[in-house]
From TrEMBL:
Pathways involved: Amino-acid biosynthesis; L-histidine biosynthesis; L-histidine from 5-phospho-alpha-D-ribose 1-diphosphate: step 8/9
UniProt protein name: Histidinol-phosphatase
Lineage, highest ranks first: Bacteria, Bacillati, Bacillota, Bacilli, Bacillales
Domain annotation PHP: ranges: 5-214
EC supergroup of this enzyme: hydrolase
Reaction catalyzed: L-histidinol phosphate + H2O = L-histidinol + phosphate
Length: 271
């Protein structure tokens, strides 16, 4: 039973919809949730140039203050009906750890609950948004030599994201840990990465972090899976890692994505 949706985007997202904060909140209340976290894509680290053709991966830093202020008002308005948490989805970009740490030092004090995710892979000093499109994924695969190499680099980068010290305000929830499977029906790996994932889960457990149990992949035609799939979620849960459901909705319609595919063998946590 889902009580909290810990991964929701907003109209501050340049690749999102214009649905308002209030619309998400009303939907959450109507469906019986007790809380939600807005986790807009944080501004990319200073000096990092968004490699996507549309350059719309994240919100502009100029809008951050109004994002936080608007959410503070929403939070207090819904106080008695819904626990609205203010958060961001922070990108871990290899090579920009310092900038990310500085960003978190500045804005972390205003955040209740955040997610750390890997979307960008560094290949020979150039960055690629691995999950932007099947074509971008293919480019990564061509550059690295195979689809397996993309998976491998993704899990290596993810592992670094868990281990890297990003300061006091580092997010404590790791986003969609199997995002490399977003296009798996078109670009499947030939080997299992279960062992790499297990190592990462152990690190997550050691650090006392939570896992984003993300439904968005179920809506992607080339994926059809939750991030992570049920058997990995179960393994994580057995280890004592709290699973926090995340719809990763970019519009109100996307809330409750994948709920029918979540493993029911373990309980979901609130942040
Ligand atoms: Zn997004
Ligand atoms: Zn994400």
């Amino acid at each position: 039973m889902i009580k909290h949706d810990g991964h929701i985007h907003s109209y501050y997202c340049p690749h999102g919809s214009s649905d308002s904060f209030a619309q998400y909140c009303e939907q959450a209340i109507q469906k019986g949730l007790t809380g939600i976290t807005f986790t807009e894509h944080a501004p990319l680290p200073k000096g990092f140039i968004d490699p996507t053709p549309t350059m719309d991966s994240a919100m502009d830093e100029r809008h951050l203050t109004s994002y936080i202020e608007e959410l503070q008002a929403i939070k207090s308005y819904y106080k008695s009906k819904l626990n609205v948490l203010i958060g961001l989805e922070i990108d871990f970009v290899e090579g920009f750890e310092l900038e990310t740490n500085q960003f978190l030092n500045t804005y972390g004090p205003f955040l209740d609950d955040s997610i750390l995710s890997v979307h960008f892979l560094k290949i020979e000093d150039i960055y690629y948004c691995m999950d932007y499109s099947p074509d971008t994924f293919k480019t990564c695969s061509d550059l690295l030599g195979s689809v397996d190499h993309v998976y491998q680099l993704y899990y290596e980068t993810l592992k670094k994201s868990v281990q890297t010290n990003l300061g006091t305000f580092k997010p404590t929830r790791i986003g969609h840990i199997t995002l490399c499977e977003k296009f798996q029906k078109k670009y499947p790996a030939t080997k299992s990465y279960r062992q790499d994932i297990q190592t990462i889960l152990s690190l997550i457990h050691q650090m006392g972090y939570q896992l984003d149990y993300n439904g968005a992949g179920t809506l992607k035609p080339l994926c059809g899976l939750t991030y992570p799939p049920a058997e990995i979620a179960e393994a994580a849960s057995e280890m004592g890692i709290p699973l926090v459901y995340g719809s990763d909705a970019h519009q109100v319609k996307g809330m409750f994505s994948g709920v029918d595919m979540l493993s029911t063998n373990q309980s979901l946590s609130s942040p």
